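<context>
A single protein, sequence plus fold
<entry> Chain with its tokenised backbone below
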Amino acid sequence: MVVTAKQLKLQTSRILKTVQRAGRITVTLRGKPIAEISSLAGKKLAKDLLEYRAIGMWADRKDMKDPSAWVRRIRKPRYSLH
């Protein structure tokens, strides 16, 4: 299936439901294909992506070895009310 960028913008929900059923669509801009959207149903994430939890500019930070612990730490209140 082929949709235009404008159709994708205006009918995102309907188009994503179509992707679920059809498996893949092509998005065009000014008549030229620019992207493909495919369904994730039945696909597994790449093993290396799951192992590499902190990405981008945070990848080399030592305090980001466990991103969940980092988030818990920064959300902890600074001052105790008791």
User: Anything to note?
Assistant: The two ends are 61 Å apart (CA to CA). Helices lie at 5-10, 12-22, 47-51, 67-75. The mean pLDDT is 79. The longest strand covers residues 32-38.
